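fwd from M.: "can u put these together and see what the complex looks like"

so here's what she sent:
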Amino acid sequence: MKAQTMHTLERFALPLLAMVLMLALWEYSIRWTGTKVFPSPMAVEHGLGELLRKGLLWAYIADSLRRVALGFGAAVLAGIPAGLALGWYPAVNQVVNPALQMLRPISPIAWIPVAILLFGVGDATAVFLIFLSAFFPIVVGGVSGVANVPAIFRRAGRNFGLSGPQLLARVVFPAALPQLITGLRLALGIAWVVVVAAEMIAVDSGLGYLIIDARNSGKRYDLVVAAMLIIGLIGLAMDVCFRRLQAIPSVRWGFRSES
Amino acid sequence: MALAGSILPSVKPKLSAQHINMVYTRDGASVPVLSDVNLDVANGEFLCIVGPSGCGKSTLLSMIGGFLAPTGGEIRIDGQVVSGPDPRRIFVFQERGVFPWLTVEGNIEFGLFRLSREERRRRVAHYINMVGLIGFERAYPAELSGGMKQRLEVARALAVNPDMLLLDEPFGALDSITRLTMRSELLRIWEKERNTIIFVTHDIDEAVQMADRVAVMSGRPARIQETVVIDIPHPRDISSARYLELRNGILEQLGLAHQI
């Protein structure tokens, strides 16, 4: 019973306390510096209320989420087969890998001019940038997932008479799944970072647009900070979902060190 | 509980390895691993292969499993040359071979995909019972002990009804008490199923306790130095004079004094 209480305390109460302390520090800094530009927690809360009343907040959140869903979804659809194929055919991987490794470190932000050239200013550009940012981590997760499947598993699969495609579906894929999920988690995190940047430049809706718009039209830093906090919260929620995914029994074995 | 002597290689052996040679090429130099290995195994026989570590026992077993082709000679099973892995002979690794993403049931069912649902269910239940994993049907390997995982892997192999089990130091990673129980479990199962078993080990006691015959391999390049018939009926008294005599004979074959 006592251990249970300690656990609840560590899990919920202490992190909550840390947040309260940060808010207090924020509030105190505002008062101490007497700034007129940077908003206090209260002002941000008012800003949030204003956005909610105007119905803008939900619309912007939905727009950002929609773009991420499209771009990330496309990256999943293209990246998982690509990653599995490259892992499955090391000879092909050897040919493609150098090009891939060169494209990978290019920040998706650097692609903005090219994306605008290709897709114009609008949704498609934002979605394309998110796709790009998510695609590479997913492919890399797939390749290394397949490459790291212990030989003993493939051998056992072949021993039971599995054909090539069966081996891929029943041994290699499930064995690579934990690393694949790690790649997806990483990719979604990056996609969520990139959507904000893309929306600042390519479109006029969404949380990224909210930030740049609030700053440009009247230096509404209360709205800027409100949008930042919303972005943080949604990012956290998405990561929590992935953690749930990692706890599913058929993949949990691959995350021993984390649990 | 037949005497070992009664199931010695008969006219038509189950397995016949003729003049097996294996040479690895490493950094341009060729390393001979096996040289002129000849081996016959009778149907339903329990054969142990012992030898110094790294001598090529596992290499030989991999060849019998069809995972590796010899550089010389050929292995025939039921008269056919082994050309690849086959569900009729299942290779059992140390317990690391079970699939961690499948439950106990899922693992046992793994090789049964060609059978009807009804038959699959029947076999899974049968072998879960046989290896004593009742109550763990839906458990994942991570929740099992080493001994349970090893039993699971044996059950997965037996479920496809193979003629042959190839076991590569299957109990090597288990603690000594679990290892002893696993030996009698395997013997109990073998007496029921009567598959041909080829069992690689470096533990001479293990070999003498279990096998009908023990093939003793030399150091590299390995050949079969001698095969010893273990003519003691099961259950074996491991303090009997005959047991000690056979064991000491093998120790001497390997050039090991039996005094510490």
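replying to her w this: The radius of gyration of chain A is 23 Å.
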